[in-house]
Amino acid sequence: MKYKDICELRATSYGPVFTLSDSQTGATCLYDMKQRKNQSVPYRRCEVPLRSNLNEYGAATFNVIPITEDLVCINKSKVFVVPNDDDKPYKYIIDKKGFRFGDPHVVGDWLYMVADMPDNGQAIIRYNLPQVMQLSDPTKAEHEIVAHKRGHFYGGLTSGPNGKYIAYNTWMAGMAFDSADVVLQNVATNAIRVMIGVNNGALLWPNFDSESNLWFYSEGIKGSHFERYDMAKDKAEKKKVGKRKHIDIGDPYWIMGNQRFFILTGKFIIYTIEDKLIVRDITISKTLTLDIDNVDLLSVDPSNKNKVYFKSDDQLYKRVYSIDLSVDNLAPTVVYTIPYYEEPLNLFLPEVIKYEGINGYLYQHCAFDGGYHDRTMPTIIWLHGGPAMRVHKTIDFRKQAYLEAGFNLVDLVYTGSGGLGRNYRVSLYNYWGVRDVEDVLDAVNKLLEMEVAEEGSIFLVGSSAGAYLALGALADDTKNLICAAAVSASFTDPTALLNECPVFEREYTEDLLPAVVPDVAGKLIKKKAHVAFFHGEFDPVVSSTDARAVSKRLTDAGGRTVFHELKDEGHSFKKADSICFVVQKTLDFFQHELANLPNNQPNANP
């Protein structure tokens, strides 16, 4: 697997510009598809890696400067410009120690960004771009605070096509999909107009169609839809475009990160739902639906408003596509393809589970001539993080490795998962570690009924919130149907997590906590559970203290456990060597458990 992901994408007049994360180093670097003499595509624009770290998880790290189509890029607390002219070197223009930047946007002479500022919280700031371009010392760059309220967070920064306005999301501590407002701000005067989410709802991802209309996505307990704000009339109006109750548009959990799940161009609004790209002609209310897996990063060519680029992850490839809105046939054209693997491999593909309420994807280990084994295979239940992330059916090297080793695998949807609408996500509030644990244990019983799994040969794998769920389910498994778990970035006490997690997650975490928090660690110790722990050395979200301590207590109590700290890794593991290490050690741990099951012993009864 050469590259892990296409992380960001922006359209230019010469084609898409995007970042690729290198699976060997974890670095994310900038590439484009411009045709050059004696150069292959994609072409690497500069050697400097891009990284935001805004809100710990990151945000957009680059954008296109209008007219010149130079690129303004972020590397944590530093900002540099990559010229459109290949003969000119990149130039650092800002270096603010202690700051973390994200979402760069150039509007006229101003460079706007979201910034985490030391001892002062988060804000929208701006720099005079011509001035900082002239500085010989980037540490001397001076910023102006455009928007700042203590305890507030900012994201979704965008700008109008004529440079008169910017717009952005703001929300109090917690996740933006809980309750977020849209702010429209005049570039010349800094005058603002705030549109407030009502009825426990959120207004997300502002987007301009012209200087007179600002659109945003309204998500509430009664469903979701798009709204259009007419700036001339100072009035917002509901549009039934995209109205949904039990489906999420885009991936609302990642409002603080980099995604673009809807755009406007000409008479069209284009947005994504699960495995579909929706193109709607607003003027005649005509909708076209394209079946494409995991669409994201929509972007419009600034020189041709009918040309739209986007990223897609299907079961075999990561791709950049384009569509031409000026033609009747909107068949996507492949611009760039990354195969998941450098060499052709046999792949295990998922099927949707449909059995008495189990929701998710089932991967079954089988012979590649199409025949399934005549015996039930050991089964891994895969638990996503978040806890509000969506379950995707894209190919994952880790899952494929477990399947190749002889396991079935179930990628499970449970209370709180994204993709099924706001009500399903918030139903986990006050029941974290309770309802989702019940869902996992219920799924275990139903998988036994389906004869997909066997009692005692079921394993759990999870990371972060998924790790907490795995440990909670293992702890509450009084029938000992689950054999063991392997967890990354784990914790057992979410109340202690409140003191360690990023500030923007604390209120959300508090909302999730039940009145009585389960004693997960105590239950694991009592039953002498078997757990493999993995943790990044520099995890900024979850400290390794809890995992290390629980691992030791389990060992002292007679349980079987291992603890591995991965050097130079953070909350999620980026490097291919680290991922391979975790997979191999997990397989070693699980296979040792299987070898010691009673029915695998030489003297076991037939």
Automatic annotation (TrEMBL):
Domain Peptidase S9 prolyl oligopeptidase catalytic: 400-595
InterPro entries in the cross-refs: AB_hydrolase_fold, Peptidase_S9_cat
Coiled-coil regions, chain positions: none
Keywords on record: Hydrolase
Matching Pfam families: Peptidase_S9
One of the protein's GO biological processes: proteolysis
Entry protein name: Peptidase_S9 domain-containing protein
